[in-house]
Amino acid sequence: MAPSQDSDPMHHIPPLSLLYTKFTAPNYYPPSDHSTLIYYETMIHTRGGARGSSSSSAPASRLSSELEHRLVLGAQPSNVARASQSQPAVQQKPMASSSKALSVKFPPRPGYGTLGTRCVIRANHFLVELTGRDLYHYDVSITPEVTSRAVNRVVMKELLEKHGKAHFNGCKPAYDGRKGFYTAGALPFTSKEFAVKLIDKDETGAKKKEREFKVCVKLASRADLNHLRQFLQGKLKEAPHETIQVLDVVLRESPSKNYTVVGRSFFAPGFHKSEIGFGAECWKGFYQSLRPTQMGMSLNMDVSATAFYEPIPVINFVAKFLDLGDPIRAASRTFSESDRIKLKKALRGVKIEVTHGESKRYRVSDITSLPTNQLKFVAEEEKEKFVIHYFQEKYKISVHYGSWPALQSGNEPKPIYLPMELCMIVEGQKYSKKLNERQVTALLREACKRPRDREESIRRIAGSNNYGNDELAKEFGIDVKRDLVCIDARVLPPPVLKYNDCGKDRTIRPYMGQWNMINAKMYNGAQVKFWTCLNFSSLSKQMASGFCKDLIAMCRNKGMDVNPSSIFPVWSCHPNEIEGALSAVHHACNDERKPLELLIIILPDVSGTYGRIKRVCETELGVVSQCCQPKHARRCSPQYLENVALKINVKTGGRNSVLEDAICRKIPVLTDVPTIIFGADVSHPQPGEDSGPSIAAVVASMDWPAVTTYRGLVSSQQHREEIIQDLYKIEQDPKRGMAHAGMVRELLIAFKTRTNEKPQRIIFYRDGVSEGQFSQVLLSEMDAIRKACQSLEDSYLPPVTFIVVQKRHHTRLFPANPGQTDKSGNILPGTVVDRMICHPSEHDFYLCSHAGIQGTSRPVHYHVLFDENKFTADNLQKLTNSLCYTYARCTRSVSVVPPAYYAHLAAFRARYYVEGESASDVGAGTGPSPTVRREALPVRALPPMSPNVKNIMFYC
Question: Which H or E run includes 455?
Fold first, then answer.
């Protein structure tokens, strides 16, 4: 029975013993039949002030009486909830994508932060001033339909040249290359159709062919600048996206005509380009985006670098891509099936231009399975003819690379075969395939710029774009200021860390985002009795043994209780015997009645086995493993040994350090009541992979109040699905029948088991969500969190704070005072910004929690989408910054809050379980064949992890 509305819901929570039974009963179903609700904005004001002490949500019956600013999840949540309980065999479906049409109000900014030392910095944002112009949006329909933006632009340019004065009042419109056509002022018609002829000419200027299009221009809407002003002033909550889009298209019109467009960035070989290997080259460019901020509209500009195909003969590309050396010497080479698949993966969809006869362009659809000298096609006289004979007869061309496959264009019924030696790759095509390690290194080397150099490049690009003299910008009343904005920022102090020193607490205060563990021991050193080492490298047994001896000595020196002697001497095995060797050493230890607690593995000299080792250890054998590169084992440097010791300690159940304020219960909205911190992320398949599953990972803290140990769970879901599907679910259990399940539920139970406390507060850091997905992700995942909580007990609704963590943005912060920088010239670690360039009214901030190493530091953007815990700006910013000093793998603060970081690592690790090795070496002609495009496959479930691995930080 639900508690009465005037009673404290905590009074209705059963004693801990009974609660533990409910928390762990797999088939326990709550009796509630009320709707699951999410409340935005004013809900945090209408809820009772007693939450700070009880940290429990209002009882179920009371939730449904909340009237203001609430949003029901799904079209019929109450019916779904009832069905899930009365008819558990019906599994609830994830929310449809149409949910984004719902209006979701995110929490308002609770105020501005005041903690820390004030400083002034610059951001790569340029203030944009607007004059009152009437903005009109017209819908353009071109028949026959054209998929190319470039062709659409040519059509519209021809239309305006012929009919601009007569029908368009000589206006200067902005066109997005699709359906959006925008004007500053109304056109003399609301709908009109035009005929446009395009005449293609050859190189001599002679007419080749004529194409005719019908263009319909129809009034769609009028964009109201007054709404935009009200939104920027915080008087309106809903952003006028259409108005912002009009202004953004206007500012993109000029660079779209002059440069190659890739997403929101612009590139040209004239900026700068350099080869990065394997048939790819790096192009420099710039990114720009118009954004609403507290200071008004802002143009965010940044330098960009991305990979393009080299505009070279295809045979040269193949030689580089497969690392064949001189293509002339490789002319007689035959290609294996794996080579062919790699080439197909690399060249499919690429535009090439033939070098024989009439200049024509084709798009590669396949690589032939037969060599060119064996290919036949049906000629005009319905007779089969060899391709090489055709080129000899018609073009007097002898094919020299006959043993190579040919490029195939067209469709399967009527394929077009093109010998590779007669084809050139067209310039200006983005290299969308996954780059290998050597290419990534070369690209980063080109893209990596010190803050001063990056800022200067941005200034130079903004100056060359000359927005002040842009005719279209003037037409629409847009004035872009020339200088980067200066911002008032604050540098938060680093937290104090606790270590162990001969059984006594020892505190360390980091400086410049880093600290040293000299003479300090781990806060909780783990115990390891049974361990051994497998050596798959070329290191001698003596050298491998010496490495293990030094590593174990370091572990012991740092406070771990590790047996100095291994179960067996070092096992040296061939890299081709990985699975057998792992299984053999595992069984041998069990035979000795010494169950393996740690397996040290020295990897093979050639990469490509790490994923296989982790899959076997974590899903088949249940062994905690620590892999080491042979080059590091040879050097055996103390710094490397210390870093590995840190990883081994957390993998075997220890804690390296803790926050002093956490242990002393001095962190607001964390240590007052039992609080669980979640981190969640979704890892998607590599670019070009069209069938692999996405991997979702969720981690949660297990050691309140210290919040340093995180248990992780992973699951697979539909290809490129961003919403996490398994946060909560009802599934068929072979023994128990229908039962509640899901990652949030399992982690809540684990927290209760580990701490003997029920979480009374949830803080959820969600990584990897773009702004366009905020509403969908929040609606679906908050619904799942609520249902997971209520599946444990009907009245169990702990307050939740849901924060999105964004790394993939283009805001960069530069020091304005040369004396306020770290060693790399970047802004100081702990720099936080919640003014001027942030959202006009919602709760968000930028935090640079780490010290720069090379290049320009990227601050992380934190955006609060839901907050029942009533965080102040200072409390959330300080908590997030402090957590960044608890990352287990190093003695440095990290750029991303650790729960989100750990979730990313866990998702990345789980991809090995279903895909084997990473495809990072495919471009180099090594590693397994990549998956080719095919029909969507059913989601392949991840193999279950061994329980003793699941319970520790296996992903570290």
Answer: helix 451-465
